[in-house]
Amino acid sequence: MTHRTILSIAILMLFCCGEMSAQQKKNVLFLGNSYTSVNNLPKMIADVSISAGDTLTYSSNTPGGCTLKQHCFNQSMEKICEGGWDAVVIQEQSQYPAFPDWQVEQDVFPYAKRLVDSVYAYSPCAEPLFYMTWGHKYGDQFNAEAFPPLGTYEGMDSLLALRYRQMADSNDASLCPVGRVWHWLRDNHSEIELYQNDNSHPSVAGSYAAACAFYTLIFKKDPLNITYIPSMSPTEADVIRMAVKQLVYDSLEVYQRPNPEVEAIWSDTVKYMSESVEVNVANVDTIYIDWGDGSDSIFAAQENNLLQHKYSDTLAYQITLKASRHCMDSTISWTFKATRDLNDSIDTTEPEGVVDVRGMCFEIRPNPTTSTVQITTDDRPMVVEIITTSGIVVRRLKMENQTETIDVSDIPSGIYMIRASLLDKYMVRRLVVQH
User: Fold this and answer.
1) Which CATH superfamily is domain 21-255 in?
2) What pTM was computed for the model?
């Protein structure tokens, strides 16, 4: 007989709703161009947040016409490297994502990846948020001759929606569907003018729709709590907030990056002083398990993981398993009662969790350590990472020499995972830091 526990996104959402209603403070970086700077969208989002009981501090880099490629080589990278961001909003030039496939794959997608990778490297807990913009009011007539789908609003807007969805999905990022909100408002409330006279940039109403959508995605809260209204009709503001609720808040799981999911299956038949559990995960980087007897294990997650542990005494143990990615966790707990084997003797095997090895070898010493850890290997140039139980990379080193030393004196005492990788091979070891 086996026991199965599944922790799903729905359960996580219910569990979190109490926290979601509390006041929150977020530090956000905006990387874009005039679509972000017009009407001072970052400040409008901050004003919207304050009115709903939350606080948003921000910094931005929004030169006119700036592309993702340019953001990879300008002040934006300096701001990303400052770290400490809760969210980073990324907006491409208004036309580029709607260009032909070959051009988007060459000029857009690689730089979207580079920006998101940099965000995770310097702010491991940050949420990258792609800013889905909208089609020009009458399409992109300038480029329509070379690429006819751009010649209408519908054609341009659908391409923008598709490409931003691709960027979010392929980079493990969230998506703020401002363009979808605009599309619904155009279809259902054409009396609300979303465009400036150039038929491209947002009016105050257009920016307000974006601000309400971003508040909803950043804080995961109902936009109907917003009371701030810029210089526009209160009736129009009500319509916009309701549209954001229906299209964004009611479909948060569609637009936010996926939560870690974990399924654990273990046997109810307890014997031989050993517990064996099958763990299936999705959207998980790290698995940490507390075996309940003072020992624990941490290792890189695969889709299917078989974990085993031996106990040294016949007691009931509370086992806790935590699956993590980008500082988001899913946790499962159960009780295991160790029993004697067929010879009525106690197995005194040293408690040890599973370590995954694929053709690599490296040594770490000392372990536990108080200040430095020395890595020795013949496999080079191996990449070594020290990772917390929540999946945060706190150190990263490329092994150029047979022995390298990593300073860990400034990281908190605790249990960490050392993950070494080289091409398609990797190995994971446990590290204890004790100050």
Assistant:
1) SGNH hydrolase (3.40.50.1110)
2) 0.77
